[in-house]
Amino acid sequence: MGNPPNAPWPHQPGQGPPPYGPPPMPPGGPAPGMPGGFAPQPGPPPPGRGGGGGLVLALVGGGLVLVLIVVGVVVLALQGGGDDDGGGGGEVQLRVGKIAGGAEAAPQADGSLVMSRPGVTAPVVDIYEDFACPPCGAFDQKHDPMLKQMVVEGRAKVVFHPMLIFSESRQPAHDNSLRAAAALRCVGDGAHWLSYQDALYEHQPENENATGYTTDELLSLAEPLGLTGGGFTSCVKSQRYAASVKTVSRGYISSGISGTPSVRVNGRTLNPSDIESPEALRRAVEAAS
């Protein structure tokens, strides 16, 4: 049996605070999030993890194409976006990314991303994820191809919610997670957002005790995707959206998200048996249609 999607994972009684539980609230309520400002650290990104599923990046005719490995190949074409998603010193300009097959990927102002075909509004699959949480990486590898396929087929609307679930005392996982989630906010085009999310999971730290997602790594992972402009680089280096990531994450926790990965379908948190396999998750989504 898997662990409940809204419970610490993997945590056993008597081992101290849950590694994936919500950050404790200070007296008098949550304190305002503080800006980031993480110094670049040298070193190339760690080698990507092997395994099945996921997205494979390829260069086709000078344009990036995401090849989705499922039964029957679905191609997600990156269109537009340019290489300067950071928007200079101001807010990142959000743009809908087109996905082959008629679906779209639309980044939202709160850092989430809505992936759906135009006109498809239900069922809604909300996925709450933390990039420094190893089970979130395993969930992504297992379920991401199937979820993207359901979107392309018009059978679901999927919303990704990157968040910070680690408390500040949980180092280096807290800072790893914050740097990664804030960097993703620097990507304005929806198709590039999806490809960068995949790259983050592919190069996830081995565990919550390993330092990863350094500034240099975050920029290196973005470079093959064409995210090399000065605006994007400045946004990542300054961790422009770190405070917003903290604020949004506190909101998710207040709504009942107590661990990652968590999955809700039409607002209902799924049971462990619903996310044990892509087939089980598909059945849970289709049952809510």
Brief descriptors of the model:
single chain, 289 residues, alpha+beta, seven-stranded mixed beta sheet, three-stranded antiparallel beta sheet, 7 helices, 10 strands, 29% helix, 16% strand, disordered N terminus
Main sheet: strands, sense, barrel: 7 strands, mixed
Uncertain runs: 1-83
Which shape, going by the Cα principal axes?
globular
**What is the average per-residue confidence, as pLDDT, rounded to a whole number?**
78
Secondary-structure element series: EEEEEEEHEHHHHHEEH
Secondary-structure content class:
alpha+beta
How big is the Rg?
A: 18 Å
Classify the beta-strand content into a percent band.
Answer: 15-25%
Distance between the termini: 25 Å
The overall strand count is 10
**Percent range for helical residues?**
25-40%
Describe the strand arrangement of the main beta sheet, using strand numbers.
Answer: 4-5-6-8-7-9-10
Helix count, per DSSP?
7
What is the topology?
Blueprint: E1 55-60, E2 63-68, E3 74-77, E4 97-99, E5 103-107, E6 113-116, E7 124-129, H1 134-152, E8 157-162, H2 173-184, H3 190-202, H4 215-222, H5 230-238, H6 242-254, E9 262-265, E10 268-269, H7 278-287
Parallel strand pairs: 7-8
Antiparallel strand pairs: 1-2, 2-3, 4-5, 5-6, 6-8, 7-9, 9-10
Helix pairs in contact: 1-7, 2-6
